[in-house]
Amino acid sequence: MNIDCYKCENFYDEMFDYDNRIKIEYKQIYELLKDANDEDILINKKKLDKSFLEQGITFTLNSIDNDKERILPFDQIPRIINKNDWQKIEHGLIQRITALNLFLYDIYTNKYIIKDKIIPENLLLSSNSYYNDFKDIIPNKNIFINISGSDIIRDKNDYYVLEDNLRCPSGVSYVLENRAAMKKVYSTLYSKLNVKPVNNYPNLLLQALRYISPNKSFHPTCVLLSPGIYNSAYYEHTFLAKHMGIEIVEGNDLISDDGFIYMKTTRGLVQVDVIYRRIDDQYIDPNYFRKDSLLGVPGLVESYRKGNVSIANAIGCGIADDKATYSFVPKMIKYYLDQDPILKNIPTYLPTNHSDKDYILNNMHELVIKSVNESGGYGMLIGCNAKKEEIIQFQRLINKSPRNYIAQPIISLSRHPTICDNAIEGRHIDLRPFVLYGEKIQVLQGGLTRVALKKNSLVVNSSQGGGTKDTCVLN
Known about the structure:
By secondary structure, this protein is α+β, with helices and mostly antiparallel strands. The chain is built from 13 helices and 23 strands.
């Protein structure tokens, strides 16, 4: 398992430059891998797996036959991001979230961006995530997006935002647990690396939640609303609630009374001020959305309308991370902030535009086709790897429902040395940093690096068999 046998091939490599020289920020990692033998690496892998198993760090892997819960695959070669690269990512995310929040405020009040013809009105009205009934219902402190997790990729030239996750972004618990496990197993390495900490995230999240409380007391009551134990991210729900010191609740643990929300406890009812929800809009209140939902709280929307409870993230913010809306984010940044985007978008084609649609249908083999209403790597076609029948199927779907799809060029994601069986090989990666919007916007000094464990695969999603790495931001 010799690192000196590693081949960068024709991709941007995170650890090596174009002359196959080790990048200075990776020097400590390289020396560790060079000195380690196969037995050492195998022993460390067993230690990491045992740590994750004992902590119950699992994820549900969906398959055709059944749902398999497993330890989240984890690679022990960490990703390093130097100070200059991180500053660009951090400043770009703060700029992006500021503009997206202003967009949400605008479209639920005056719709200036539509009146000025920056974004077509039909894009809004045709989205499943825009609720016109919520016009002029503005969350406390005007903050719609309290927690976000935009996905970032890199190619040979630059960083790009691939998509924004603004509803119930997941994965931050793995960031914290990955770091804790790595520091135990590789204590010597981490004592040498000057890495920014990530373990302050639960405290920062709690501060952000308290900031939006309608209750002016110093310790408002915050709860985490979960769909329950069968949700694939339930481990994360319990992890965050525990580390914030707040209650994790399900829909039947809360009741609405006289426009307020209360939590059932052994001491009686306790008024709830802030709900950190990990439930999609459609399931959050059966009185307003899906009437068959058993996950939500009847009457929650009424309490939210009256301003008696805050919800993070706000109901209706999904329109801002609609994959069709994504293509207009650079225009939003220019419109609201009068700035050029720090982080670029991937060029995006919308089938609702006739010329874009013609291009998509005639160039499917060169594009990635995505359903605007799917996530986790589902509803997606990577044209260069697709069979003829799959391309024909997606052409039919696009013709039938052009608003439900977008297309983007196939990007060669950067690669990172990864331990695969008995060798160190390059695997494609992305990055999901987490951003909190409370009294100010703060970016967690690290993020979830996801890695496509299957050779040559560009799909890094955990639900599709991908794994993770620790992400170290250097001081």
